[in-house]
Amino acid sequence: MTNKYRINNQKGFSLIELMVALVIGLIILTGMISLFTASSSLNRAQTGLAILQENGRYAISRLKMDFESAGRKHCATLTMPNEFTTKWNQGYEMSAWRVSNNVNFTNGLPARGQIELDTLADPDQLPDTVDISAFNSYPLDPSFFIRGYECASGSCLPALSTPGTDASFVIPAIGTADDSRADNTDIVTVRYLRGGNRVTAIAGNNLTLAEISPFTTGDAVVADCNTSYVTPANWAGNAVNSTTPLPGFNLNGDTRVYNLDEELVNVTYFVGVDQDPSNPSRLISSLYRSENGLVQQLVEGVERFDVFYLAQLQTGHVVRMTADEVQSIQGGGDVDGNGAVDAIQGCIIPPSIDYLGGNVSLANGAGCLWRSIYAMEVHLLLNTVNNSASNETEPYIYSPDGMTPQTPGAALPSGLPAERMYRREFTAIVPVRSYTL
Question: Which residues, listed in sequence order, are joined to residue 188 by a DSSP beta bridge?
Fold first, then answer.
């Protein structure tokens, strides 16, 4: 009787109880799904912003390393006014390299026929027709050690065909296909010397080096604290032979030899468009760096790249300009030869060239202000590379466009789709350490 009583009193859940349990379970499951979704979204955002921050910091640090070195030459890099007590407001006297007529630049530096000279009898400082055929060398204008390009709406100013453009590689054309260059982004080329080998003895055109040189071919830059001469050369062990007559060098002035192909560094920065490695059907924009023709992708997610230049005018004023504005300045200095500045906007007095008969100087033609760049103001707009934001209209501020927050349109200035990404600006003012420009 006892066992039968217990069996008859066992009961299950009622329908109402089951429905209540199901509702409670669904509420808990919905909460867990919402929590997981929120956590996943937050994780994507944090990961994207962390990548953005790291990419921005690395890009700025890499740009600073090159821009600080722009124009670095040998020995005396800090120049003084050409007449210290009377013409301080005329700026700085610059030194120009001497280049043998037998040197053929392959990196975009100008050839003999592209050098602009001015006769001292004509004080306007603008380019004149000067016959230098009787001389075995010509001056290399120091303005070619910094060159910038303001690019927008499919073209650049100055044009990429002007002398001084980096020719060690082919700069991609603007477009939205793989291996193209992003529109509305600048290009910057800087040049500087690094390395070098100390000269211990000079006998005619033969130089003895302090150490064994790693180079076997290439033109040479021979320089002391007063003269820099570019010449074809033969390299062998610790000896370098110039195939053209050398000007006089002073071993007490720390004479050194540099390999033109390897130790004159040509660096160009630009923003390129390429396939996303994780999704070949998607395009992304990245900051690229070319060094002597070797192109390397630095960081992904760079949408905008704008550079402003702090340049010294003939009056000593330092002004902030875009690349096309720097290129447009010409003339200036003491136009009428009376020792006084004649106008505000103009280039500083160019150096005279003593080995071309002593009656010519470098001209202040278009682009002469590239000799006088004090600092470079860099702006980068980076995104999170992958979709990290909750919508496509996440606001951002990019100061070259103004300080008002803006939202991305369906297409970016580069022409690529905006997508759902966070964006941040990174900026730096980089002083040019070697003020020989």
Answer: 148, 269
Structure tokens, 9: 């009193």
Q: How far, in Å, CA of 164 to CA of 312, rounded?
A: 20
**CB 108 within 8 Å of CB 266:** yes
CA distance 379 to 423: 13
Contact 140/115 with Cβ under 8 angstroms?
yes
Q: Vertex 355, ends 144 and 262: CA angle to 5°?
A: 40
Reported residue count of the chain is 437
Bridge pairing between strands 206-209 and 239-242? antiparallel
More confident residue, 360 or 7: 360
Q: How deeply is 239 buried, as exposed, middle or buried, from its count of CB atoms within 10 A (0-12, 13-18, 19+)?
A: middle
Contact 270, 235 (CB under 8 A): no
252-291 pLDDT, tens digit per residue, is: 878 999 999 999 999 999 999 999 988 888 999 999 999 9
Q: Report how far apart, in Å, the C-alpha atoms of 357 and of each of 31, 132, 136, 261, 353 are.
A: 88, 9, 12, 30, 8
Q: What is the mean pLDDT of the chain?
A: 85
